[in-house]
Amino acid sequence: MGNGPVGADASGRFPALVASCVWRATPELIVALDDRFGEPVDAYVNGSQVWLRDDGPNDITLEWRLHPVPRYRRPPEVGTYEVFSATSLAFATGGSPPAPLDALWEGLEAFVAYVSDAPAIEPAPLAAAVTASVGIAPDAVGLVDHGPIGDQWERSGRAVSVIDDLLAQLRT
Q: Is residue 140 part of a domain?
């Protein structure tokens, strides 16, 4: 979904259905990500923060993507690569983050990073693995089709909620 997700195939599309776990963003989740994962391996100008970790079932690499709010705007006093660390530090120490959480990220998603290289993972084992890794159970677990979500996000000029769209698929 934008910025070439790792799990996409050569055409830039995901397989039709992929096991996914989703959390709504909370200060506790941001602190847990920092405590357990450290700095993201990549940060994007669109606000996405990404970790690639071999903590899936059978040590499969997972992509952990902190999705930005619709129409994300980076706080002017921090750079693209400092937003996460400044925010997590503020939440951990009771300080003031560079922007309110609801102006930065709306949620976290975890899914198999290299879909073409990994066997299909069922949602339940994925949920168990990610809960053990981050220490917080996901809000929703199931199969999602990233294609329409990414297409809608791009067409809208990044003005729609990726997390709402993911949760809508996970509830159907």
A: yes
Residue 6 lies in a domain: no
Q: In what order do the strands lie in the sheet with 62-68?
A: 42-43, 49-53, 62-68, 105-112, 18-24, 140-144
pTM (predicted TM-score) = 0.88
How confident is the model over 52-78, as pLDDT tens digits?
A: 999 999 899 999 999 999 999 999 999
What tens digit of pLDDT does each residue of 124-156 get?
A: 999 999 999 999 999 999 999 999 998 998 899
Does 93 reside within a domain? yes
- Provide the domain count of the chain: 1
Contacts of 54-61 with C-beta under 8 Å, sequence gap 24+, read 55/129, 55/130, 55/132, 55/133, 56/112, 56/118, 56/121, 56/126, 56/129, 56/130, 57/121, 57/125, 57/126, 57/128, 57/129, 60/112, 60/113, 60/118, 60/121, 61/112, 61/113, 61/114, 61/118
Point out which residues pair with 141 in neighbouring strands. Answer: 21
